Amino acid sequence: MIAGDDDRPDMDSRESIDFFVDCFYERVLADEQLSPIFVDVAEVDLAIHLPHIKNYWCKLLLGEKKYQRHTMNIHRKLHGKRALRAEDFQRWLDFFSATADAHFAGKRTERAKQVAKKIAANMEQSLGARSDPLRSE
Ligand code: HEM
Q1: pTM of the predicted protein model
Q2: Residues in contact with ligand 1 (CB, 6 Å cut-off)
Q3: Where are the domains of the chain?
Q4: Burial (0-12, 13-18, 19+ Cβ within 10 Å), 84
Q5: Ligand 1, atom nearest to 69 Cα
Q6: Predicted confidence (pLDDT) per residue in 79-127, tens digit
Q7: Is pLDDT at 40 greater than 90 in this prediction?
Q8: Cα–Cα distance for residue pair 135/137, rounded to 1 Å
Q9: Which of 2, 93, 125, 126 has the fewest Cβ atoms surrounding its Cβ within 10 A?
Q10: CATH classification of 14-130 is 3.30.230.10, yes or no?
Q11: Angle 45-131-32 from CA coordinates, rounded to 5°
């Protein structure tokens, strides 16, 4: 891309984060690997879940204080119902970065991708996520 030819905004406001999360979930929920974890295992109510996710990212990226829940415990419980595998984390991250790059660019966008990568790695390690041997070839 030619320098200065990029009119994608940075992910630096509540509006941009709300939009990002909606686009990210559109991809995740259309994916046959990840969608069942949200729909069948956790049975998420999107009207409740999406505002939590939006507040979470507004806390991490903008310093807002609305999100006060324990994300790790929630994933630990989820992992107990249906193991989250290394390839699930990889796919989740791929969608996160692809969605960010499709609509946004800049320092805050790069930071969002880095933060997601770091938390995903910590979460994966702390859950002891393994890859599924049947899928690894
Ligand atoms: C394998 C990757 C992942 C999968 C399949 C996944 C799936 C889910 C599901 C199904 C829920 C809803 C759980 C429930 O309400 O019972 C959830 C909640 C959530 N996830 Fe993930 N997740 C993944 C990774 C991540 C990562 C890496 C982050 C952060 C960077 C994250 C942030 C959140 C947040 C903030 C919530 C909302 C918790 C709340 O209700 O307050 N997730 N996730």
Answers
A1: 0.94
A2: 34, 37-38, 42, 44, 49, 52-53, 56, 69, 71, 74-75, 78, 84, 88-89, 92, 116, 119-120, 123
A3: 14-130
A4: buried
A5: 41
A6: 999 999 999 999 999 999 999 999 999 999 999 999 999 999 999 999 9
A7: yes
A8: 6
A9: 2
A10: no
A11: 40
The closest-lying atom of ligand 1 relative to the alpha carbon of residue 49 is: 40
Count the Cβ atoms, other than its own, within 10 Å of residue 5.
6
User: What separation in Å is there between the alpha carbon of 134 and the centre of ligand 1?
Assistant: 24
Q: Which long-range contacts (CB under 8 A, 24 or more apart) does 10-14 make?
A: 10/104, 10/105, 10/106, 10/107, 10/108, 10/109, 11/61, 11/100, 11/104, 11/106, 11/108, 11/109, 11/112, 12/61, 12/62, 12/106, 12/108, 13/62, 14/54, 14/58, 14/62, 14/64
> Model confidence over 13-38: pLDDT tens digits?
999 999 999 999 999 999 999 999 99
CA–centroid distance, 110 to ligand 1, in Å, is 20
Shortest-distance Cα residue to atom 27 of ligand 1? 120
